[in-house]
Write a structure and sequence with these properties.
181 residues, 42% strand
Length: 181
């Protein structure tokens, strides 16, 4: 039996733009997007969780009207900032990034493996990129305090073996882009 104040392990059942629906012990739990992570820039819940993933959640209240528990993941993972995980990453580190948007006039928005959405300048970008393509990029600068990462496309372009030089905790954090829902 789940009660307000409990910390439970729950399975992600559905992802919506506004949050995620979890299930634990037959109970339904809603976690709003603002309660998923303690860092700014969560544009969609699929950056933080994916369907079928087991997550820890604090049960904050019960919504009688909708018959659902409402929870939060923020108090259980206060150091979820991908900027913090990148702190100390030296310039020149090779990372993978998934193309989200390609601009007609050049440049792109990419999602790094650690979940950050970053603008990529057109200089050095491979030709014919499409959303969903995985590319290699090089970290030029990480400014944790300002919440900024500067990337450039690597000379290799599309991803081959882009995992070399990437700290394991960064690679392990990334959730699949899109996630469903």
């Amino acid at each position: 039996m789940i009660a307000v104040g409990d910390v439970v392990d729950a399975v992600v059942r559905r992802i919506e733009n506004y949050g995620v629906y979890l299930e634990a012990g037959g109970a339904n739990i809603l976690v709003l997007i603002t309660e998923l992570a303690d860092w700014r820039g969560v544009r969609h819940p699929s950056v933080v969780v994916w369907p079928g993933e087991v997550v820890r959640v604090l049960i904050e209240r019960y919504n009688d009207q909708d018959g659902i528990f409402v929870g939060s993941m923020k108090p259980l993972a206060p150091d979820t900032s991908p900027y913090e995980r990148l702190r100390g990453t030296p310039p020149g580190t090779l990372v993978r990034a998934t193309v989200h948007t390609v601009y007609r006039r050049g440049g792109a928005v990419v999602v790094m493996e650690c979940g950050l959405w970053v603008n990529l300048s057109p200089e050095g970008m491979p030709e014919g990129l499409r959303p969903g393509d995985v590319i290699e990029a090089v970290i030029e600068d990480v400014d944790v305090e300002r919440g900024r990462v500067i990337l450039r496309a690597s000379s290799g372009g599309r991803a081959g073996n882009a995992s070399r030089g990437v700290p394991a905790e960064i690679k392990a954090h990334r959730k699949p882009l899109g996630g469903g829902g």
